[in-house]
Amino acid sequence: MAFAASIRLSLPAPALRSLPSSSLHAGEPSSSASLLAGSPLRIPSLPLLPGKRHLHKYNVVHARKLSGLEEAMRIRRLRDLQNTTNVKKRPPLRCGRVSGRLPVPDHILKPPYVNTNMLPELSGDPQIHDEEGIAHMRAACKLAARVLDYAGTLVRPSVTTNEIDKAVHEMIIDAGAYPSPLGYGGFPKSVCTSVNECMCHGIPDSRQLQDGDIINIDVTVYLNGYHGDTSKTYLCGNVDESTKRLIRV
């Protein structure tokens, strides 16, 4: 898309005849000069003219041609602005009260980082699993997926993330697994619940979910010595279209 600028000169014909022909259309005298896409328009110095009309400033106007990508981005920004003009601004997220950690029966196999605030060391050596190990990994991931699906059914206005944490904890324990987030680096809960602007690893608390919230639930289980990890973002009640589009992306 090319932009052309034109400057109208309110000058009498004698003054215009003193302008170079390159600043006029095809060299013909005219009361206006237009800039076509290309080189800049330069207006030379003119003597003062009788009357009240004087040329006080001299302008150089450049025409620029936008690339296809720039033009597409400009149109997209305008469209997004139009679509978000009427979006109601939500109040900032407020933290609620965090309750104590839930108990885990002694018979549940626990990961090595439990009961310490130290994070486990990461090994740089590649791990090659046998068929038994792969089967255990698959079982842990399937359990995590089932727990996540169940947690998603609990998302609705007035439900607290503490309640979601308790339900997730009980389901994992009933399956004979350990909720991996609990005690990892001192994390006090069995699931991560990240609401609205909380990006990740949110701590469940007493805050009630509100209509229009979004919440990411991150479920990780430790089963037979293997972790299964999964997460998903859910809509709470009526969510505006721009937020829905963000989640789809």
From TrEMBL:
Source organism, top-level taxon: Eukaryota
UniProt-recorded Gene Ontology molecular function terms: metalloaminopeptidase activity
Gene3D superfamilies xrefs: Creatinase/methionine aminopeptidase superfamily
Gene Ontology CC annotations of this record: chloroplast
Organism encoding this protein: Colocasia esculenta (Wild taro)
InterPro entries reported for this sequence: Creatinase/aminopeptidase-like (IPR036005), Pept_M24 (IPR000994), Pept_M24_MAP (IPR001714)
TM annotation in the entry: none
Domain Peptidase M24: 136-247
Name of this protein: Peptidase M24 domain-containing protein
